[in-house]
Amino acid sequence: MTFIPASLMTGPTRPGTVLATGWAYIFTGIMLLFSLFPVYWVLATSLKTKRDGLANPPLWIFDPTTANYLKLWTHETFKSTFINSVIVTVIGIALSLAIAIPTAYAIVRMKVRGQNLVGAWLILAYMLPEFLFVLPMFSFYQWTGLYDTHVGLALMYQVHVLPLSIWLLSSFFREINPAIDEAARMEGASHLQVLMKIYIPCTLPGLMATVILNAIWIWNELAIALGLTFSKAQTVTLGVTSFRGYAALDWGAMTAASIVAIFPMLVFAVIAQRHIVKGLTLGAVKG
User: Fold this and answer.
1) Is 17 contained in some domain?
2) 3-state secondary structure the chain
3) What mean pLDDT comes out for the span 1-30?
4) Residues 225-254: what's their mean pLDDT?
5) What is the rounded average pLDDT of the residues 255-276?
6) Is 112 among the domain residues?
């Protein structure tokens, strides 16, 4: 008698399975609706005239206009904050990689004293709220001239992105066989050569995932930018609020600014989605 596993048997689908699948689709649809509706509402408001945007009850069918988006690029404050975000994001990512890559390599492949303390610091620093670090650094930044500067803001962002980068890169580096490292060292390669020619190329998807996650966090950060900038280095998250007047809000321009603010990171994440998935699953399946 031949035994056939139940997983290979074909036949009519049981009613319970169909019902469970149906409820799963319904639940997923509801969650998707709750997630996307705020984005739709902001987008719809950004395409309405001021009169349509303030209509009560809200207008679901309206003639769209691009006037609010055209207003953004004649608004000097918003343009400067958008450029500031690009500059700060690039500097912040460059700093985090320059420090995190050799640090992760040292933690994984060298006998470094206090590794457990470093691991505890990474977790603690990542869990603490960002604004907690702003208060003690406010006076120091004013004294050193780093207040309201791109470099100062990018340096402060390392409090969050650096622990995440070290933690991720350490996990990626551990997936490389130590025998490869040892063979390269026996051939006379230095630690820097091993890092540059073996570790970085082999973990490139993980490195890309780290860059993407850090870029998204830096671009969207608000608390640190609010505390350590005034006018010259304000980021786009603060630029969105520049359409708030003394006694009124320009809802059309503010919602248009919100869409423009999230659009670059949205496109970046979609384009690099393959690297995110591949990087975050690096080493999850072993032969």
Assistant:
1) no
2) CCCCCHHHCCCCCCHHHHHHHHHHHHHHHHHHHHHHHHHHHHHHHHCCCHHHHCCCCCCCCCCCCCHHHHHHCCCHHHHHHHHHHHHHHHHHHHHHHHHHHHHHHHHHHCCCCCHHHHHHHHHHHHHCCCHHHHHHHHHHHHHHCCCCCHHHHHHHHHHHHHHHHHHHHHHHHCCCCHHHHHHHHHCCCCHHHHHHHHHHHHCHHHHHHHHHHHHHHHHHCCHHHHHHCCCCCCCHHHHHHHHECCCCECHHHHHHHHHHHHHHHHHHHHHCHHHHHHHHCCCCCCC
3) 64
4) 84
5) 80
6) yes
Q: How many CB atoms lie within 10 A of CB 97?
A: 19
- What number of residues does the chain have? 287
Other beta carbons within 10 Å of 266: 13
Q: How far apart are CA 214 and CA 97, in angstroms?
A: 10
Question: 204 lies in which domain range?
Answer: 73-286
Residue indicated by tokens 């004013």: 142
For residues 228 and 138, the answer to whether their CB atoms sit within 8 Å is yes
Contact (CB, 8 A) for 114 and 272 = no
Q: Which residues of 100-139 are buried (b: 16+ CB within 10 A; e: fewer)?
A: bbebbbbbbbeeeeeeeebeeebeebeeeebeebbeebee
What are the backbone dihedrals phi and psi of residue 244, each rounded to the nearest 5 degrees, phi first?
A: -95, 120
Whether residue 2 lies inside any domain: the answer is no
Q: What's this model's pTM, rounded to 2 decimal places?
A: 0.80
How many domains, the chain?
1
Measure CA 180 to chain center.
32
- pLDDT over 70, % of the chain: 84
Residue 30's Cβ-side half-sphere holds a number of Cα atoms within 13 Å equal to 5
Asked which of 66-75, 92-101, 176-185 is least confident by mean pLDDT, the reply is: 176-185
Q: Where residue 277 sits, what CATH number does that domain have? A: 1.10.3720.10
Token pair for residue 140? Answer: 């120091």
